[in-house]
Amino acid sequence: MSWMTEHEDPYEQYDESSVRERPNPKANRPRSKQRPEHEDAVTGIVTAVDRGRYTLAVRIDEQDEAIVTAARARELRKQAIVAGDRVDVVGDTTGETGSLARIVRIQPRTTVLRRSADDTDVVERVIVANADVLLMVVAAADPEPRPRLVDRYLVAALDAGITPIMVVTKTDVADPEPFLANFAGLDIEVWRSSIDDPPVEALRERLDGHTTVAVGHSGVGKSTLVNALVPEARRAVGHVNAVTGRGRHTSSSTVSFKLGSGWIIDTPGVRSFGLGHVATANVLRGFPDLAEVAEDCPRGCTHLVDEQYCELAIAAADGRLEPRRVDSMQRMLGTLVAAREQRHQE
Ligand SMILES: Nc1nc2c(ncn2[C@@H]2O[C@H](COP(=O)(O)OP(=O)(O)OP(=O)(O)O)[C@@H](O)[C@H]2O)c(=O)[nH]1
Ligand SMILES: [Zn+2]
């Protein structure tokens, strides 16, 4: 998966200096070393990343809109550049076959969605930048929906300041309501989708103008949904991206498509969603249905099962809170605390 292995970057030795750049027909300023600002840079949106090569959309919605392949400037080498990033790019931005531009700056990000390989992993991977909606795709069955995976998406999204939305697919295969009952106390937007009646038009309208990142366990129907959402004409743009991304290793890399005036970013299906990077103090943010009651906890309460006076446990016992939600939160916290202890022993 490209975003997981980005730090390895096997193309690192082939930096942009090894590729001859064509003269940029638009650059009329003389090249000079005294140009730290790169005034001639254009802004691009990173749509796909593949082993040190970045696919960018530049001059979007203008007549000379182009899909450009770029390398990163040497000074940016250690910084991850991910789908959704706004970057400043110089050099040949025509997008012509064989051309290579150069990313010289990453613009400040509004949000960063991260996951770690597992809970013990300190090294977090930035999955996507600048997303404001996390589309959690879950199947009603085949594969079985896993509430704990959704808990993890919620913690990651709310920690990052991204709005989570859920789509339950395959409602033709199984009744999604028993699964959804897990999240009844949570004020979360849920869409139901079946093979014959996916809510494509309504979702498209809902996501218009947003940068949406879709996540889901492998096989839930995420690609089917994303393909249905992205109109044919725009997918053509995506297909260009697919040459560098999905085309080569199916579903193993992140690709973005224009969706109305926004973007939808499809990520590889994953089984787990490590939260090694999330501070335990922030875990409760992913359980907004519990947060209010937790305010009555004794000072310094860890909310773990061994806390005698945890208000969450008390509220679960006397029926004010849904016991399985408190249990979910305690388990996640317990797992993260154990992983952290293991890390400190290593
Ligand atoms: N019955 C039914 N099948 C569906 C539905 N949505 C998708 N599928 C099927 O589920 C299978 C998996 O769908 P994909 O879209 O490839 O799943 P994915 O989540 O992208 O999986 P990865 O590519 O592994 O990440 C395909 O055979 C789809 O046709 C649905 O609503 N109902
Ligand atoms: Zn507590």
Automatic annotation (TrEMBL):
SUPFAM superfamilies xref list: P-loop containing nucleoside triphosphate hydrolases (SSF52540)
Biased composition (Basic and acidic residues): 1-10
The protein's required cofactors: Zn(2+)
Xref: InterPro entries: G_CP_dom, P-loop_NTPase, Ribosome_biogen_GTPase_RsgA, RsgA_GTPase_dom
NCBIfam families named among the record's database cross-references: ribosome small subunit-dependent GTPase A
Domain of life: Bacteria
Parts forming coiled coils: none
Quaternary structure (record): Monomer. Associates with 30S ribosomal subunit, binds 16S rRNA.
An example molecular function term from Gene Ontology annotations: metal ion binding
GO CC terms: cytoplasm
Organism name: Agrococcus sediminis
Gene symbol of the encoding locus: rsgA
Name the record gives this protein: Small ribosomal subunit biogenesis GTPase RsgA
Disordered: annotated span: 1-42
